[in-house]
Queue: 3 jobs
Job 1
Amino acid sequence: LIKDLDKEMTEAEVSEKDAQAEYEQMMADSAAKRTADAKSLTETSAAKADMDAELESHGEEKKASASELMAVLRYTQSLHAECDWLVQYHEVRKSAREEETDSLKKAKAVLSGADFALVQTRSRAFLERSSQHM
């Protein structure tokens, strides 16, 4: 009976020591895991803060780029309107310029001493049309 009791006591002590060792190992593992989790949380929080700052900066850049794009589009539209006007009135402006050049040449000739009093170009056609209608 004493042997059995000694044997059970020895087994209980060994079992208790093993359980204590397992508990201490579990506590050490838990502490290491908590430390690793805290470090991971800190790194993740820092990465999130960096990404938030980067996101804000990209948002501001996007707004600036969109504003610049709108300005370029307005400028392009104004150029397009100006070009359309130039194309539309090209012939009118060309004939006006030719008439102005012709008038300047005649004025220069008059100033140089030429006499254009007897030369009729347009008024003759006007007079002919006027006499036909009467």
Job 2
Amino acid sequence: KDFAGEIHMVLNCHRERRYMTEKQRHLTNWVPIAVPFSEWHVSPPPFNHWLFGFFPILAPAVFKVYDGMSGFTCPSSYVMGREKARRLFPQLSGRMIKYCAVFFEAQHNDSRTNIAIALSAAENGAHIANY
């Protein structure tokens, strides 16, 4: 039951993100998130579940499923080798990594959205104030 609830939450987040990136392109952008892996198997496994021990191997497929849950509206996740990862993400340069998986999340500038809403309201006759 918890798993189904988590999937439902992720789907709702994707729906909200799709709406924001389509309707407010000027207030959103895509941010790459790099997940470096230095081992092929993690022990002890996270959350004490044996399958999570294999996440370094399964990550590319898991991120493709995540892309699919968004209806493939986000930039596609991908895998990069150690050298390219170090070049694109300099903060990884001191770490011994096997490879890096990259997926994307939408970033939303909520303060600019609030200002846009206030200005639109004022243009339509509303009185606005700040405290």
Job 3
Amino acid sequence: EIDELFVSDTEMRLSLLFAPPVSISMSVLAKLESARRQGKLDLDFGNKLLRAGSVLNGDVPSENDVLRHLVRAFKLEGDVPSLMVSLSTLAVFFSLVDKDPMVGYEWMKANRLSFFSIPGFKSGILNDLSRLS
């Protein structure tokens, strides 16, 4: 079972982040890796998320630690919480790929594999996340 995708600073496992049939998963992983290499990840926000989830013990996490703990593979089967991982992954992507969440959103709109590229598409992600909390 693949759970950790960002294994180390030099190794990344490729797995689905979002449900098929047409998946943008590999594009999102590549964009996150590109942002990591360019130093554009919003690590401050990632640190806050990890601290809120009690994942850290006072240590300052590396870029890879943030990605490893926050970006999870999508499982095609399982209970409802595990099936909802892709929803939180989308929110994490928008939050981490750049300090400005509009960078990730505009990138998604420009990516032909993304539903965001369909004119008039509305994700409803804020409403969905509000219902989950």
